[in-house]
Amino acid sequence: MKSNNYLAALVLFFLPAISVELLTGDGTLATYFNPIAFVILNLTYGATLLLIRETVVRWGRGFASVLVLAAGYGMVNEAIDSKGFFAPHFYAVVANGLEGFGRHFGINIPWAINISIFHSVFSIIVPLTIVSAIFRSSGPWIGNRLYAATLVAVIACSAFSFIFLTPGNYSYSEGPWPITLILAIIAALIFLAWKLPTPHPHRWQLQTNPMVLFVIGYVFTVAYMNTPTRILAATHSVGAYVAFLLIAFVALPVWLTLKLPEPTAYGKLALVTGLLTPIMIAGLHAGAGSLVATSLLITLIAAAFWRNRRSLR
User: Fold this and answer.
1) Cβ pair 97, 236 in contact under 8 A
2) How far is CA 268 from the centre of its chain?
3) Cα-flanking dihedrals φ and ψ of residue 104, to 5°?
4) How many contiguous H segments (helices) and E segments (strands) does the chain have?
5) What is the 3-class SS of 238-307, one letter each residue?
6) Pick from 260, 263, 275: which is nearest to 311 by CA?
7) What is the H or E stretch that residue 104 is in?
8) Helix (H, G, I), strand (E, B) or coil at 107
9) CB of 68 within 8 A of CB of 124?
10) pTM for the whole thing?
């Protein structure tokens, strides 16, 4: 049993960087297997996800706490590890047409919200759902010593990236206040996740079959990939852009999570497959790294479906 738990932790450690950086084409195979990048990417993505999972288990909390910590993960990744929240000419800010748009308190606010939604879903919830469906143990996967060592490694990696790596890419000093604000928000989210009781909402009396959940996931990703730019082009309004992101991709999904009947394991995997499918399709032309990531994800999803085939309704 212990060996299975360590295997689960190992898969969770490696999956997020592969399913985000390689699948989207943001990273190449050569970059991923560069020794320094390999360590930093897997600590930034997988080790942090492993800490989130293990922390929630140790606290005796549920999925609501995972959602809260997932909301803060984008801040760790894109504010501390890359400084994308702060650098006004950050490559992804420019690529999304958000340069100089809605910049307040030294933070690229519209892009910060946009990318935090992405990381919450695709760096945290999606890989955690897949791996948890394969390895169904609800207890800790790693011991306290390895947990502490992982925590130290993640903090050290983030500090190293913030102090030494990103200044070389972006000669921009954000000053003390923007990073202090972000750290305070992260701390508040951690505290909220710790104290948040498990909700017991009044759910709709419906049946949601896996195909419906697949479509919901597919529509979410297609809408996320296409509609924010259309809102930006149509309104040129920071308020409209931010409100649309928060309503369509935060408030509505959370509300549906609370109101729809909790899916079976099969249903959760169908939802995740729907979320990933548009990115897999878009990644067909993104290079070898995306194809490798797609093949790996399809294999793991198939294994998860097989492992939970009895939950099909």
Assistant:
1) no
2) 16
3) -140, 150
4) 16, 2
5) HHHHHHHHHHHHHHHHHHHHHHCCCCCHHHHHHHHHHHHHHHHHHHHHCCHHHHHHHHHHHHHHHHHHHH
6) 263
7) strand 103-104
8) strand
9) no
10) 0.94
For residue range 47-98, list pLDDT tens digits in order.
Answer: 999 999 999 999 999 999 999 999 999 999 999 988 889 988 898 899 999 9
CB 297 within 8 A of CB 14: no
Percent of the chain having pLDDT more than 70? 96
Q: At what angle do helices 63-75 and 176-195 cross, to 10 degrees?
A: 170
β-bridge mates for residue 107, sequence order: 104
Q: 28: which 2 tokens?
A: 């190449």
**H/E/C letters for each residue in 157-195?**
HHHHHHHHHHHHHCCCCCCHHHHHHHHHHHHHHHHHHHH
- Contact assessment for residue 41 and residue 47, using Cβ atoms and an 8 Å cutoff: no
At 193-231, the pLDDT tens digits run: 999 988 888 888 887 889 999 999 999 999 999 999 999
Q: With CA atoms as reference, report the closest residue to 296 among 90, 13, 18, 2.
A: 18
Q: What is the pLDDT of residue 46?
A: 96
**Cα of 21 vs its chain's centroid, Å:** 11
Q: Is 205 helix (H, G, I), strand (E, B) or coil?
A: coil
The C-alpha angle with vertex 65 and arms to 64 and 71, in degrees rounded to 5, equals 95
| 24 close to 290: Cβ distance less than 8 angstroms | yes
Measured CA to CA, the distance from residue 261 to residue 305 in angstroms comes to 20
Place of tokens 């990318």: 115
- Spatial contact of 280 and 20, defined as CB atoms under 8 Å apart: no
Alpha carbon distance 142, 150 (integer Å):
10
